[in-house]
Amino acid sequence: MTIGFQLITEKDVADLIKDLEIIKLETIHAKLEEQNELLEKMPTNEDIENMQEKLSLLIKELPSRDEMSSRFDALEELVLRVAENLKEELKPVLQVNGASASIGPAAECQPKDEERGDQMSENSSSGVSDDCSDSVEDFLENQSSSERHGHPRVKGINPSIVRLKTQVPFVIEFDGKLPGDVESGRADFATLGVVKLMKADDDCNLFGIRTPSSSKEGLFKVKIYSQDGSFLGETEILYIDLVDEVLKQALSNRDILKKFLKLAITCVDENSEGSSCDTLNSTDVGFSSEKKSSLSVLLLQNNNLFLSNLSVIGGFELTLRDLSLVASHWHSSS
């Protein structure tokens, strides 16, 4: 190798090393820039303190659990009072749910003795769960067990549909007379609780003082046992939100909505004297100007307002002012 060639080779190697170092430095520089951007986006201690202060203020403004509960109860009472005066318009809903108001013909059944049963356990806080229903195998096994002991089959529970948060008398109906050794029993309402049963005078029904209440809608299995724990059969009971159903129907029909809200305004008008929820013909029964603008004008006198899509609203923890704001939004976007 000549000296000239050696010098050229050494220069090429030096240039290559220099290029590699430049590439490495550029890579390091790019990574440092990325880290700087991330650091700039990270909140400072001051930012965190400001956020904590805003959150604490927001939490203070939120209504308490009791306030939310009383707010819903007030709305529920209002809706049901108005619905009572719109029986014809809301007939399908009220007919379907009418079973929740009483136990119908089964109310004639009386306890065999004067002992009045009490609910044996408080309502479970777990509400509706996915395991309310047993498997098909368990159901068939229970039915065959009932037949082996010669017990008549359970026809059903009356009422089979009840409103949320209500407790009503009920009857477990059988398709024949109960054996003489069955004097009482219990009804196990899945996750809701257990209720004591008494034998009715006709010897073919068991009578319960009140259904356990539920805070959630759903279909619940009801297992029936005699006083000695023998399985007699099972049936199902449906808990529904009547307020939900009434509001959905009212919001899906413009004419019903007008009548509904006119009655609602009358019911909540604190300044009107002697007014009642029966007032349907007058648009001015002492409403404040604020109520007129937010409800009468926006909801009652607007023929173009159509709220059928509002039937998807859930929860219904709404005041009339909330409804007027929602209606105003839909009107402006239509």
Summarize this entry quickly.
The chain contains nine helices and eight strands. The chain is an alpha+beta fold and 334 residues long. Helix 3 packs across helix 7.
Give structural attributes.
334 residues; alpha+beta; 8 strands
Q: Could you characterize what this model shows?
A:
By secondary structure, the protein is α+β, with helices and mostly antiparallel strands. It contains 9 helices and 8 strands. Helix content is 44%, strand content 15%. Strands 1-3-6-5-4-7-8-2 form an 8-stranded mixed sheet. The radius of gyration is 34 Å and the shape is elongated. The termini are far apart. The relative contact order is 0.11. Residues 96-148, 270-275, 279-322 and 324-334 have low confidence and may be disordered.
Layout of SSEs?
Blueprint: H1 3-41, H2 45-61, H3 65-84, H4 91-97, H5 136-148, E1 154-158, E2 161-163, E3 170-174, E4 184-189, E5 193-199, E6 205-208, E7 218-226, E8 231-240, H6 242-251, H7 254-268, H8 289-300, H9 320-333
Parallel strand pairs: 2-8
Antiparallel strand pairs: 1-3, 3-6, 4-5, 4-7, 5-6, 7-8
Structural category: alpha+beta
N- and C-termini, Cα separation? 89 Å
Number of helical stretches of at least 4 residues: 9
Uncertain runs with pLDDT below 50, 5 residues or more? 96-148, 270-275, 279-322, 324-334
Using only C-alpha atoms, the radius of gyration works out to: 34 Å
Tell me the β content: 5-15%
What portion of residues is helical? 40-55%
Strand order of the largest sheet: 1-3-6-5-4-7-8-2
Number of strands: 8
The profile of the biggest β sheet is: 8 strands, mixed
- Helix and strand run: HHHHHEEEEEEEEHHHH
What's the pLDDT, averaged over the residues? 65
Overall 3D shape: elongated
Biased composition (Low complexity): 121-130
Biased composition (Acidic residues): 131-140
Biased composition (Basic and acidic residues): 110-119
Region (Disordered): 103-154
